[in-house]
Automatic annotation (TrEMBL):
It comes from the Bacteria. Its EC number is 3.6.5.4. It catalyses: GTP + H2O = GDP + phosphate + H(+). GO terms for molecular function: 7S RNA binding; GTP binding; GTPase activity. It comes from Nesterenkonia xinjiangensis. The chain holds residues 13 to 464 of 555 of the full protein. Part of the signal recognition particle protein translocation system, which is composed of SRP and FtsY. GTP binds at residues 108-115, 199-203, 257-260. GO terms for biological process: SRP-dependent cotranslational protein targeting to membrane. Residues 278-291 form the SRP54-type proteins GTP-binding domain. GO terms for cellular component: signal recognition particle. This is Signal recognition particle protein. Composed of three domains: the N-terminal N domain, which is responsible for interactions with the ribosome, the central G domain, which binds GTP, and the C-terminal M domain, which binds the RNA and the signal sequence of the RNC. Keywords: Cytoplasm, GTP-binding, Hydrolase, Nucleotide-binding, Ribonucleoprotein, RNA-binding, Signal recognition particle.
Length: 452
């Protein structure tokens, strides 16, 4: 994903500092130069890089580092803190209006991901107990209204559109977007929706007329939040685009889209610092759930390959079956044996959490094992299920009885080679050992978490 190469470069740079008892000025100069190059190559805007490096250097030359027990690690800590700073510092979520509905407007270039985001945001808010309504004010792009209706349908959220019957791709609804926005908000008010999300027309480049239209919609409806959506893949152009929108519509927050892509990530690292507006959300795919709150501190940790365990846990909690988790916890407490059935249940929980690759990618040290991650075969979970289902209930709770003929029978039953059955049993034995350790109060060792 995004930031891979930046992350590689930075971690390589820090490796050189590892274990040094003292850092000379030359060490710090060299490190600063490497970081500077890595940031520029990642398309971070020049003025942002300049300021970043100046701050890192000044702090690294100070007593914070010279008096540290582990100066190398102290430099990493400084880089981490400064990175959090340019990403906007604190996490910022939507602010809801005292008197509903809260009106949220989306703005950005055409193709940035506004319409897609509208569906995701509506879905998220709905799941949080809000009653959002979408309003289609992108009357410029053919099919944008339709696309919003489809997204709203998938999210289970109503869509206000000027032409209820628009169905052909070629037909572009006419009408005045400002009027549509007003009417949409009025309808939302009448039907007691507590949030309105307005999708507006994008533009291919920065265009005064359309910018004016966005500003007009904003003031006509008194939008509480204006989210500027920007494609993380657009590179150095991000800064000028963001600045124009900041001047044109004075947005309140930024959404980075397509963070799942292979972009170098410069936009992400520049926009907050150049506009002074926080990045609030990240869009990471085309699905309704590929959307997360942007936490500057966690993102910095991800870039520096310190892992993003918090996001991992949250994602797990969101999809974890509470009853199942409670049962598992009780089992630990009772020091009951961990069986193949538990193992299967755990795998199924993991599968529900979404892509294993995405999850594993958030672990500390993930950047270092990227190659293994790329090769991770999601379908292997299905085969594990097949193998375990081919076992008798007794075999599942007492895998010790598994002799050669049982293994052969299971392999045949699940359509795999015996070696796969053996592998699974080995992995299970390891998991069982780890579970015992955790039940005993010990935490398993995280990979890559060692001292620098
Ligand atoms: P709009 O013109 O700003 O409304 O942009 P759209 O919402 O139509 O998105 C443009 C294209 O980008 C569509 O093909 C979307 O499916 C795709 N897209 C939007 N957000 C993401 C994202 O986070 N990741 C990826 N991979 N694709 C996205």
């Amino acid at each position: 994903p995004v930031f891979n190469s930046l992350s590689d470069r930075l971690t390589a740079t820090f490796k050189n500092l590892r274990g040094k008892g003292r850092l000379t000025e030359a060490d710090i100069d060299g490190t600063a130069r490497e970081i500077r190059r890595a940031l520029l190559d990642a398309d971070v805007a020049v003025p942002v890089v300049r300021e970043f490096i100046a701050r890192v250097k000044a702090r690294s030359l100070g007593s914070e580092v010279s008096e540290a027990l582990n100066p190398g690690q102290q430099v990493v800590k400084i880089v981490n803190e400064e990175l959090v700073g340019i990403l906007g510092g604190q996490t910022r979520e939507l602010q809801f209006a005292k008197h509903p509905p809260t009106i949220i407007m989306l703005a950005g270039l055409q193709g940035a991901g506004k319409t897609t985001l509208a569906g995701k945001l509506a879905y998220r808010l709905k799941n949080q107990g809000h009653t959002p309504m979408l309003v289609a004010c992108d009357l410029q792009r053919p099919n944008a209204v339709n696309q919003l209706q489809v997204g709203g349908g998938r999210a289970g959220v109503p869509v206000y559109a000027p032409h209820p019957g628009v169905s052909s791709e070629a037909e572009t609804p006419t009408g005045d977007p400002v009027q549509v926005a007003r009417a949409g908000v009025a309808e939302a008010r009448e039907k007691l929706h507590d949030v309105v999300i307005i999708d507006t027309a994008g533009r291919l480049g920065v265009d005064t007329e359309l910018m004016q239209q966005a500003a007009d919609i904003k003031s006509a409806v008194g939008a509480h939040e204006v989210l500027f959506v920007i494609d993380a893949m657009i590179g150095q152009d991000a800064v000028t685009t963001a600045q124009s929108f900041n001047e044109g519509v004075d947005f309140t927050g930024v959404v980075l889209s397509k963070l799942d892509g292979d972009a170098r990530g410069g936009a992400a690292l520049s926009v907050a610092s150049v506009t002074g507006k926080p990045v609030m959300y990240a869009s990471t795919g085309e699905g309704l759930k590929d959307f997360e709150v942007f936490h500057p501190d966690r993102m910095a940790r991800r870039i520096l390959d310190m892992g993003d365990v918090l996001s991992l846990i949250e994602q797990a909690e969101a999809s974890w079956d509470k009853a199942e988790a409670a049962k598992m916890a009780q089992k630990f407490a009772d020091q009951e044996d961990f069986t193949l059935e538990d193992f299967l249940a755990q795998m199924q929980q993991l599968k529900k959490m979404g892509s294993m690759k995405k999850m594993l990618g958030m672990m500390p040290g993930a950047q270092g094992m990227r190659q293994q991650l790329e090769q991770f075969d999601e379908s292997s979970i299905g085969r594990v299920e097949a193998i375990i289902y081919s076992m008798t209930p007794h075999e599942r709770v007492a895998p010790k009885i598994m002799n050669g003929s049982r293994r052969a029978r299971i392999a045949k039953g699940s359509g795999v080679h015996v070696s796969e059955v053996n592998q699974l049993l080995e992995r299970f034995a390891q998991a069982q050992k780890m579970m015992k350790k955790m039940a005993g109060g010990g935490m398993p060792q995280m990979p890559g978490g060692g001292a620098m």
